[in-house]
Amino acid sequence: MELQLNVVEIMKNFNSRTCQLILGAGAIQLVGLKTISVRNLALASRSLQLVVRFVPAIRKEFADLLPTDKQQMLRHFDHVSKDYTDHIQEIDNKLLLIMDNHLIGSLNEWRVEGKTPTVAFQNIIKQIGKFYQGYSAIMPAEVTTAMLHRIHANFKLYFKQHLQARGITPHDAVTYGLVLPWLLVYLRAIIQ
Questions:
Q1: What's CA 57's distance to the chain center, in Å?
Q2: 100-137, pLDDT tens digit by residue?
Q3: By Cβ atoms counted within 10 A, which residue in 30, 38, 162, 181 is the most buried?
């Protein structure tokens, strides 16, 4: 029982420390990082995912060793697994927030003009590219694809809101016609 409690405590400490350093930005003060990058966040998430993957196997080992009257102690592994899963989700949310801030900031700078691509749209494409490079180097392809789909869905939402806030609708063919080339530039860049 003591060994099981120590294993649970080690798992809790790793989870807590990882989140303090990455989500709480403790690594900036402690280690001297200038920023917590997408790569840092992805590495933290991947580390937590690795531990979560082994929790059921560790739980099973202790289930085989603990006497029947002490089996309720296995619930600690369930709590640890939930905490890890919650922090992984928080990291994903933080990654999306980073991209949301870039998307919204660039769209706020964007003006409907005749030239394409504008600096604002170039920044959007550049930031998504930087995100992809940092994230895809750590995460598996299917996870990277799912995250990019979420970013794209957010972009579509913010783009629509931006157009609505400026009164740009399909009914105004001239202005709406100026918008379409930027959207095509974005789509071509994202597809590549």
A1: 27
A2: 999 999 999 887 776 666 788 889 999 999 999 999 99
A3: 38
